[in-house]
Design brief:
binds flavin-adenine dinucleotide; 11 helices; alpha+beta; FAD/NAD(P)-binding domain; 6-stranded antiparallel β-barrel; single chain; 7-stranded mixed β-sheet; 30% helix
Length: 382
């Protein structure tokens, strides 16, 4: 049996970070054919590494705070700069590599890993059984059994549940989060993007860009709503959209009345097209049965109905779209100590999405992966 001081299962963002810090004889096990593959898909291929505003309020639990005090976004940027990865921030504080390419991040992380003589990487390697022993752990793959003193679970969301079960570790069920929503048909709206939409559902209230699909709705603000829904296990419901959140209802009323007065021969679709995407104008007027009406026939009541519809556009969602970015659920931070070691299973560490920490869109999830990987890696350094 090959013996290692540390075995890390999962070579994604947090597993790589952890291996980079480890100074002991370490085995990094990856089930797929490539280390860090997911990083290439992040941030639409640009990799939104972190955010300048990493605050607990953007996560599902305030307990993350004490971990960010150990390794925050500024320290992450310094760390990456030392690896040769330099970044810029957009208006929302989202940090991307200057190259605008996720390949930069992965390539330079891999380069740094390749220089670590204490780290052995095995790809296409799937552990089938992990067990706690008196002094450490055994990790059995289909071909071989390894022994280690410390075990790090860094398999990402929902992929390492069998190991948690084998080690009899409690965890909250993993549920997909940060994804689009399926909706009833959005007639004629597929591909329409609308900026500055206020999205409301119970206590969720956020403004952002949305993208209509034939039977779905997407965009960062919808992803963030999905996180809220996933955490509360809400799968169907009614979202209200204010399609012109920057225009007060009174002003909208005045604009529409003025346009109707000045352009009596316009159709109402043409009147509303002055304010909203034409497809939305059509969709709304059809729903109000006003699509055949001319401005000159438009009543005060019609204008009031239009304002109300634009400010309270209803979308019924019927489920979650596929391709979630993260999972909510995992090992509760309350069961882990300040170094992310399990309080009941000595020598077991959890990082990244294995822990019940999930953030909204904007670099928050990768930051958690870097932070948790760094903290555990530092612990394994001694
Ligand atoms: C399309 C997409 C875009 C995203 N964009 C962003 C973004 O721009 N910014 C941001 O902050 N977050 C983003 N995220 C989320 C972010 O990528 C994850 O939160 C982060 O990668 C989690 O890190 P992790 O180490 O926990 O897991 P992962 O990075 O998922 O790594 C887990 C690794 O473990 C391996 N593995 C799984 N099971 C096993 C097993 N049984 N044995 C061995 N290996 C195993 C996997 O193959 C994988 O390589 C995005 C996610 C997706 C899907």
């Amino acid at each position: 049996m090959e013996k290692y001081a540390v075995i890390i299962i999962g070579a994604g963002a947090s597993g790589m970070m952890c291996a980079l810090q480890s100074a002991k004889k370490t085995l990094l096990i990856e089930a797929s054919d490539r280390v860090g593959k997911k990083i290439l898909a992040t941030g639409n291929g640009k990799c939104n590494i972190t955010n300048d505003q990493i605050l607990a309020q953007y996560y599902n639990t305030p307990l993350v705070d004490k971990y960010f005090q150990q390794f925050n976004s500024e320290q992450t940027l310094q760390y990456f700069a030392k690896l040769g990865i330099f970044t810029y921030a957009d208006q929302e504080g989202r940090r991307y590599p200057l190259s605008n390419s996720a390949h930069t991040v992965l390539d330079l992380l891999l380069k740094a890993l390749s220089l670590k003589s204490n780290v052995t990487i095995k790809v296409n390697c799937l552990p089938v059984q992990v067990a706690k022993t008196k002094d450490g752990f055994t990790v059995a793959t289909q071909d071989q059994t390894y022994v280690c003193d410390k075990l790090v679970l860094a398999t990402g969301g929902n992929s390492g549940t069998q190991y948690l079960d084998q080690l009899q570790v409690n965890y909250k069920n993993f549920l997909p989060s940060l994804m689009g929503l399926k909706t009833t048909k959005n007639k004629g709206l597929a591909g329409v993007r609308v900026s500055n939409v206020r999205v409301r559902l119970k206590d969720f209230n956020e403004v952002g860009e949305i993208l209509f699909k034939e039977d779905g709705i997407s965009g960062i603000v919808i992803f963030n709503l999905s996180a809220h829904l996933a955490r509360n296990n809400i799968r169907t419901g009614r979202i209200t959209l204010d399609l012109l959140s920057k225009v007060e209802a009174n002003n909208l009323l005045r604009m529409l009345a003025s346009s109707v007065n000045h352009n009596p021969h316009y159709s109402l679709v043409e009147i509303v097209e002055g304010l909203l995407h034409k497809s939305l104008a059509k969709n709304i007027l059809e729903k109000l049965s006003l699509d055949k009406k001319l401005a000159q026939d438009c009543t005060e009541q019609d204008i009031n109905a239009l304002v109300n519809f634009i400010k309270n556009f209803v979308v019924d969602f019927t489920g979650y779209a596929d391709n979630n970015q993260v999972y909510t659920g995992g090992v509760d931070l309350k069961d882990l100590d300040t170094n992310l070691q399990h309080k009941q299973v000595q020598g077991l560490y959890c990082t990244g999405e294995v822990v019940d920490v999930d953030g909204v869109c904007g670099g928050y999830n990768l930051q958690w992966a870097w932070t948790s990987g760094k903290i555990v890696g530092d612990e394994l350094h001694q």
